[in-house]
């Protein structure tokens, strides 16, 4: 069960299901268990297909920067009060495979392709066709002038293939397009070169105010989008979750909750905030009128989902020391950025 699926249910107000999720992580016995699938322990490249004409250069830079900001060694400061995306990645890196190798500490942007063709009445078949085309140089050249790539996509076990859908893309109404219309993101499997099968993760920008793609943007602590574009910032946050999921739970195995409910490192951390009166905690820069809970490189700020920290048995934005047998209780932030916070203090 993915965070994205849970998010859709939340916006549909499926109260019995939400109550089930709230109880799913109660108690100190909850945790994630390894189920045998290989995780990404080598440097990861995230290849991107940009669908649509609605992208602006600052937004594209913010998305690329979010990916490169996941590499912990990119940061000079080790004592920032606000978690950075390298810290967030540090929580993901505590997960290991059977050989005891941990998730890679290096993430970068891979090949990129841009589809700027017709945006109305888009279909799943069209998305699949373009997603297959990018793996073949001749197919790219023969496709149309509407598809441009800086490199041909390669099939590799340490590649993540990410589709980004602009708010300007409109899918034709139909059962095959239901997920693309109803969900904020998901993934599908794709046959590519020589019969190889890869996962294609996709995430789309919200198209209107009814697209509730992140509970953080409904938080009472939210005062403004961290990079000045709520659509981009929502997409970037959900994309980062997909990257975390892909390296730890790639093909329906990997790290999954030990209670049989199918929760992952991200979906485990949605239920706690359903009980929070004011929503997920956020930092605020009152001068710039923005909210965020993590910083990236080059001055960018982001809103990301808390992920399950196996060591403290709770949700976190950064690694923490073990604080004893009791899990940390998630509460609202203190609202100011001064002084330290030890591992036993609440968010």
Automatic annotation (TrEMBL):
UniProt entry keywords in alphabetical sequence: Apoplast, Secreted, Signal
UniProt xrefs under Pfam families: Phi_1
Record-level GO cellular component terms: apoplast
Family: Belongs to the EXORDIUM family.
Name of the protein: Uncharacterized protein
Secretion signal span: 1-16
InterPro entries (UniProt xref): EXORDIUM-like
Coarse class of the protein's main subcellular location: secreted
Locations listed in the record: Secreted, Extracellular space, Apoplast
């Amino acid at each position: 069960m993915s965070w994205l699926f849970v998010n859709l249910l939340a916006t549909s107000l499926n109260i019995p299901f939400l109550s089930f999720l709230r109880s799913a992580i109660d108690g100190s016995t909850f945790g994630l268990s390894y189920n045998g699938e290989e995780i990404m322990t080598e440097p990861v490249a995230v290849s991107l297909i940009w669908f649509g004409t609605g992208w602006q250069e600052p937004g594209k830079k913010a998305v690329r920067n979010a990916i490169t900001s996941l590499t912990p060694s990119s940061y000079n400061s080790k004592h920032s009060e606000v978690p950075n995306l390298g810290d967030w990645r540090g929580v993901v890196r505590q997960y290991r495979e059977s050989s005891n190798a941990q998730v890679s500490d290096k993430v970068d942007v891979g090949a990129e392709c841009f589809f700027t063709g017709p945006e109305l009445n888009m279909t799943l078949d069209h998305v699949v066709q373009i997603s297959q085309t990018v793996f073949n140089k001749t197919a790219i050249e023969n496709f149309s002038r509407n598809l441009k790539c800086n490199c041909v996509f390669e099939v590799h076990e340490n590649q993540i293939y990410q589709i980004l859908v602009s708010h300007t893309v409109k899918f034709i109404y139909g059962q095959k397009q239901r997920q693309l219309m109803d969900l904020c993101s998901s993934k599908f499997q794709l046959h590519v070169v020589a019969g190889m099968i890869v996962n294609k993760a996709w995430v789309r920008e919200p198209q209107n105010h009814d697209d509730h793609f992140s509970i953080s943007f409904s938080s009472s602590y939210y005062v403004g989008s961290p990079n000045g574009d709520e659509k981009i910032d929502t997409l970037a946050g959900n994309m980062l979750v997909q990257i975390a999921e892909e390296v730890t739970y790639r093909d329906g195995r990997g790290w999954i909750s030990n209670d049989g409910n199918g929760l992952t490192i991200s979906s485990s951390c949605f239920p706690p905030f359903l009980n929070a009166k004011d929503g997920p905690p956020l930092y605020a820069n009152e001068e710039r009128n923005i909210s965020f809970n993590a910083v990236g490189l080059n001055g960018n700020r982001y809103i990301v989902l808390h992920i399950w920290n196996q060591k403290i048995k709770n949700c976190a934005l950064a690694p923490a020391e073990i604080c004893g047998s009791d899990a940390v209780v998630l509460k609202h932030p203190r609202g100011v950025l001064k002084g330290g916070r030890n591992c036993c203090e609440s968010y």
